[in-house]
Hints:
The protein is of the alpha+beta class and 176 residues long. It has one domain. It has two helices and twelve strands; from the N terminus they run H-E-E-E-E-E-E-E-E-E-E-E-H-E. It has helices at 2-22, 162-167; strands at 28-35, 40-46, 52-58, 65-72, 78-85, 101-105, 108-118, 120-124, 133-136, 139-142, 152-160, 169-170. The strands form two sheets. It has a seven-stranded antiparallel sheet, with no helix packed on it. A five-stranded mixed sheet has the order 8-11-1-2-12. It is elongated. The mean pLDDT is 89.
Amino acid sequence: xxxxxxxxFFVLLLLIFLTIIAxxxxxxxxxxxxxxxxxxxxxxxxxxxxxxxxxxxxxxxxLTDVIESYQITKHNEIRQYELEYEDFAIGMPSEAxxxxxxxxxxxxxxxxxxxxxxxxxxxxxxxVRANHTFIQGDVSFPLSGAIEPGARVRIQVKKIxxxxxxxxxxxxxxxx
Length: 176
């Protein structure tokens, strides 16, 4: 009987040990927002190749909306494919680059057919009026809800583990 108890105890310890290890194995692909100074994921969105999202913000000079549209590539990169804005003022393009298409429609300017690919990019979440907002489908999430205004984040695609999911904010759980 003593041997059975020891075996059960050993199996239980092994299961606990394996469960703890499994919690640290990255398995879920996500678009993550990382504080680069601490390499800390503050928020994330589960995403796969082909998924799209937008980042909307108010331009600091001409105070109109700018919407940048992105897609996750099959190589887990982020590809910007469209830019929408309302004013040619400082900081906004007045023409499309080679292979891109410039269009004006309903008082807005669009640069379409963009193919700008990044492993990651940095974004400083606006402090005053930018109101950087993540948009995907019916989800619209102000980034200041998870990221301190003025903070710099690195946006990238990577696999995350269970612990990182528990520590970060899942943007999809905040539908507005």
